[in-house]
Design goal:
With 182 residues, the chain is of the alpha+beta class. It has 4 helices and 7 strands. The chain binds coenzyme A. Coenzyme A binds next to β4, α3 and α4.
């Protein structure tokens, strides 16, 4: 064994460091990449076709115009780790205080507490924007982490729809959860 002064100290555990900020248009390629990973590999989204950059840019512009929160988390080196946004729940005017949220982390960033941090900020920012109700529509298979996360923030189950989606050769349902921001 090496003498003590030559032995290498154990590597300190790398802390999972991130900052949360408003999304900007140049984030859209990375946002698209994160989302499309789940389109191709999971049933947490019912999309089957990869979203294009053009679609993400249009979505960003639309949410920006409405003043709806769209947040991203990035690593100290500037790598996009995940995003969270809210979008109108329905177009009819009386629904204007109600939004649907969406939260996606890159697979390597999941399970480390970032979802909690992003959702907390998204809720605060939605309140500040004058929104009153948030709805989460979550797949009833394969999205256990998302259901657990939303329930931890006081989202309550308000209903389920069975067999409304068909992806990867199987039927899927959704769980609807709602949180009041009042
Ligand atoms: C869902 C998602 C945003 C959650 O974020 P996360 O950073 O992985 O979750 P966190 O580490 O903040 O954990 C949040 C809570 O959920 C719990 N949780 C996490 N994964 C879980 C799992 N697979 N099953 C049950 N509970 C789970 C954690 O224990 C944690 O609770 P705690 O803080 O009391 O320990 C993230 O995993 C993700 O992006 N998944 C893929 C995309 C997705 O499903 N998006 C949602 C579509 S509706």
């Amino acid at each position: 064994m090496l003498p003590r002064h030559l032995r290498k100290a154990p590597e300190p555990e790398t802390p999972f460091d991130f900052t949360i900020r408003d999304a900007v248009l140049p984030d859209m390629p990375a946002v698209r990449e994160i989302y499309n990973y789940y389109v191709a590999n999971s049933t947490v989204t019912f999309d089957e076709d990869a979203m294009t950059l053009k679609e993400w840019k249009a979505k960003f512009a639309y949410l920006d115009k409405l003043g709806m929160p769209f947040l991203v988390a990035e690593s100290p080196s500037g790598q996009l780790l995940g995003y969270a946004l809210v979008a109108p729940w329905k177009q009819k005017r009386a629904y204007r205080y109600t939004v649907e949220n969406s939260i996606y982390l890159g697979p390597a960033a999941a399970g480390k507490g970032l979802g909690r941090a992003l959702l907390a900020e998204l809720i605060d920012r939605s309140k500040a924007a004058g929104l009153k109700e948030i709805i989460a529509v979550i797949a009833d298979q394969g999205a256990e982490a998302s259901i657990a996360l939303h329930e931890k923030f006081g989202f309550q189950e308000i209903g389920r729809m069975g067999r409304v989606g068909f992806k990867f050769d199987r039927w899927l349902g959704t769980v609807l959860l709602q949180k009041s921001l009042k």
